[in-house]
Design brief:
Bound molecules: adenosine-5'-triphosphate
Keywords: ATP-binding, Cytochrome c-type biogenesis, Membrane, Nucleotide-binding, Translocase, Transport
Shape: globular
Largest sheet: 6 strands, mixed
CATH topology: Rossmann fold
Structural class: alpha/beta
Low-confidence stretches: 1-12
Strand content: 15-25%
Strand order of the largest sheet: 1-10-4-9-8-7
Helix content: 25-40%
Mean pLDDT: 89
CATH class: Alpha Beta
GO molecular function: ATP binding; ATP hydrolysis activity; transmembrane transporter activity
Number of helices: 7
Order of helices and strands: EHEEEHEEHEHHHEHEE
Protein name: Heme exporter protein A
Number of domains: 1
Number of strands: 10
InterPro entries: AAA+_ATPase, ABC_transporter-like_ATP-bd, ABC_transporter-like_CS, ABC_transptr_haem_export_CcmA, P-loop_NTPase
Pfam families: ABC_tran
CATH architecture: 3-Layer(aba) Sandwich
């Protein structure tokens, strides 16, 4: 059985206090059991505007599962996730309108070009004013690759296409599963800056990673899963 420790986050009472103080994303008393194995239990935290949460733990400890619970894609045995004080199961469409989720499988379509992938993402998830797709691709180091099929790009370049969506999305909450995977050092730094800017503008971010992360002007709180 996996054990779970929460370095930051904690008791339901603390989550309720944080809500009173204006927390946007709250988890309270989350329990998730997979085939008799407790991945996490009594897990809670509260995130305010401008705050980030880093989910750490060894392979198989439940990081992706926790992100899926936070997105409403997996149901916990117990506990609830609230956005702006309302259980996400009761305010699903409002929650999804403010959420950008980039999963481990990042969803970039290989037969589409980077430009087309971003057009689809914007059609589905909305678009932030004032940023063009080509500008986002350039910022992610993809100038010159706008019109090639994504299947011809490297793993790191495809990950950059996926992350370019973050420059275009109007979403307030970013939930990112291993955003640094396959990126070189410059790419990792770009994503750290992107997350930092998002937080500075009042956004929230939850991410998993096996890397040390250096945010500018902010420090991510840490939830550690597993033994
Ligand atoms: N669809 C599924 N059906 C059954 N078991 C699953 C499923 N998805 C994940 N698991 C199991 O749940 C556990 C947690 O998986 P999860 O993907 O959340 O871990 P993780 O911490 O994200 O791992 P990694 O660091 O390898 O990405 C693992 O033991 C895994 O085998």
């Amino acid at each position: 059985m996996s054990t779970e420790a929460v370095r930051e986050g904690g008791a339901p009472a603390r989550a309720r206090e944080a809500q009173a103080a204006g927390a946007l994303l709250e988890a309270e008393g989350l329990v998730f059991v997979r085939e008799d194995r407790v991945l996490f239990e009594d897990l809670g935290f509260a995130l305010h505007a401008g705050e980030a949460l880093q989910v750490e733990g060894p392979n198989g400890s439940g990081k992706t599962t926790l992100l899926r619970v936070l997105c409403g894609l997996a149901l916990p045995e117990e506990g609830e996730v609230r956005w702006r004080g309302t259980d996400i199961r009761r305010a699903r469409s409002e929650y999804l309108a403010e959420l950008a989720y980039i999963g481990h499988q990042h969803g970039v379509k290989g037969e589409l070009t980077p430009r087309e992938n971003l057009a689809v993402a914007c059609a589905l998830g909305g678009r932030r004013d004032g940023v063009e797709a080509d500008e986002a691709l350039a910022r992610m180091g993809l100038s010159g690759y706008e019109d090639v099929p994504c299947r011809t790009l490297s793993a790191g370049q495809r990950r950059r296409v996926a992350l370019a969506r973050l420059l275009l999305t109007p979403a307030r909450l970013w939930i990112l599963d291993e955003p640094f995977t396959a990126l070189d050092r410059g790419g990792r730094r770009d994503i750290e800056r992107l997350i930092s800017q998002h937080l500075a503008q009042g956004g929230l971010a939850v991410f998993t990673t096996h890397h040390a992360v250096a945010l500018d002007g902010a420090e991510a709180r840490v939830v550690h899963l597993g033994a």
